[in-house]
Amino acid sequence: MPLKAPHLRPAFDWSGFYIGGHTGYGRGSSSAVLSDPLPVSTAGSVFSGVIGGVQGGYNVQLPSGLLLGVEADLTFPNYIISNSIISTLTGMRSEVVHQLDYVGTARGRVGYASGHWLFYATGGFAWAGERFINTPDAGPDQKHINVRPGWAAGAGVEYAFAPHWSVKLEYLYSQFDRANVRFPLGAEHSSTLDFQQVRIGLNRKVDWPGSNSRTPKSDLTDPESDRWEIHGQTTYLPQGYPGFRAPYTGTNSLTPARQAQATWSNSLYLNARLWEGGEVYYNPELLQGFGLNDTVGAAGFPNGEAQKSNFPYPHYNTSRLFLRQTFGFGGEQEELASGPSQLGGKVDVNRLTLQAGKFAVPDVFDGNSYAKDTRKDFMNWSMWAPGAFDYSADKVGLSYGVTAELNQKQWALRGGYFLMQAVSNSNAFDTNIGQRGSYVGELELRYSLFSLPGKLRTIGWVNSAYAGSYRETLNNPALNLDIAQTRTGRIKYGYVVSVEQTLTDDIGLFGRWSWNNGKTEIMAFTDIDASLSLGTSIKGVRWGRPDDVIGIGGAINALSRDHRDFIAAGGLGVLIGDGQLNYRKERILEAYYAYALSRQLTLTADYQLITNPAYNADRGPVHVFSGRLHGEF
Question: Which of 100, 326, 392, 426 has a CA positioned 20 to 30 A from the CA of residue 437?
């Protein structure tokens, strides 16, 4: 008699819970009418840009291949504010800006699963978070926060490339109800809104305890392949200070009244091997929060997570996306530890590494072991980086460039070229490569002092930028301190000397001296023309807490003569400008204790004393108290 064929399990079991993230492109449109009192309208206003977000859901796969599921997601615009401006209407007495904060959906999914492939349609409820900001002719701005409901529908295809991992391509269309907003002074705003998304997503199945999934269980972050790795981090950093002495306050001053703010960053690091020596690194992030006083008021600003863009809701950013190619020259090998910006494995000590794409200049240069990462160690800008190094960066600290590193056992030589900002403190880059750019070179020497390892790094850099001159601005009273009117092609240069020295297995020292010529406006980092920082890092081995760290350090920051005269006359820098100036060097003292709650979770208490904030002896001192909760995998 014929035998019954055995039941074959599907190549991938789609049933169960999953979580993931997505990125892509979003495009919305809106028609709006502002009555104030006469009507002004816009029809078909379009906004668009890169988007990113998170999702989670649950699937049930039937024996026939039919799949039923539910999914919820949140999607955020990117950090370039213009990409989230839905419309701007100007009436007789006011101007109303309509801005998107986020889009969310809760949907059902119906599809067919065939092996590693899933084809599905989806639809359900949608909502949009938005804000309306009215700037009347008289009086302060008026803000209205709104959430409008709607519906969403779309379709997608998903492919499972590992036992717990899948990637999807999806299209979603959302249409929302009309929103009617009335402001206190009588202006009325009425608008429609729809939003389209094309996005790629990464999902990871979650094995809950006791689940009956037919997929073998594994650690949540296991990539299930030696060709790629996934890392992640989250950092919540609240910060505040009590009131301090200040006889006057300017546009870029710390407010003398007590205040508190917080920042929150969430990051994934997706790293993959492409071929022999070839690797790709992708770092999507969601950034949220505010620096103290909107990140102005001190040259050595106290929160390295508070970049110069402030977000009330999370904003997406492709913080890093670059290719790396390593050429080994044979001989002795060393093990590179796995990390957010490094695939683990053995490489030749004698090697050449090329890197090109989007990343931060400090990712490659001045790799100080004790004061480098504001999410883990020192928080102050003049402690975790060379303060006078005006390296290329947009408002969240990233740039586009190419670097080369020649590594030997006792030394390394690095060089790089980066695009320069179009103007000071800008998110736009000048693509005139022949005339504009930032050139950086570094020599790293590795040595032993009484059999204890140390490193000495020397960096030289030159910026060719479209920049203004402090002295030319001061010499022409007709400019009214508007340095932008003196902008032309100019050269800025400087250097950094950085040293780190191990004293014992659990104690290390570091120091940095940095300087720039200080004649042209700061392009990207902060208002420092010379800076000296010293500090120590102590692990908790001696008191039975080997994963705890104490950090103590200080910095002294200074301005060039041209720069200080410009600020004293009432000029504004990137981070400073009190309207007048009783010049003294800015002094920073910082101390922190990082308490390891577990291998993945650290709680830090931090104190900073800022004397002569923004180089002004008439203001301060400022006592800044901070906490930091950092998790990573």
Answer: 326
